[in-house]
User: Which sequence fits this backbone?
């Protein structure tokens, strides 16, 4: 299985909202998916959109703003390989509160 296949599989699991998962655990899952998705523009953008949805659900205003911006710039940053390696894709390293 290629790295991209693993990313696609992980994103498919993240699309399903599980109410049993704690908010902080969900951010960690999204951050892990983000790190793997960075080289692939479609998957990278989708992860940021999933992060945006999660930020909206948790009402994290600063993260909503950041994810709106990141959703726009994620595809070009992947295409031109301008992404910071291993960046978690969120405003803070540990994820929003």
Assistant:
């Amino acid at each position: 299985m290629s790295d991209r296949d693993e990313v696609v599989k992980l994103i498919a699991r993240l699309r399903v909202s599980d109410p049993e998962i704690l908010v902080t655990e969900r951010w960690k899952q999204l951050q892990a998916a983000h790190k793997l998705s960075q080289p692939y523009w479609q998957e990278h953008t989708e992860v940021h959109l999933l992060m945006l949805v999660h930020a909206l659900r948790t009402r994290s205003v600063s993260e909503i703003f950041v994810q709106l911006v990141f959703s726009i710039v994620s595809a070009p940053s992947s295409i031109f390989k301008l992404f910071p390696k291993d960046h978690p894709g969120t405003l803070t390293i540990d994820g929003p509160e």
About this structure: The mean pLDDT is 88.
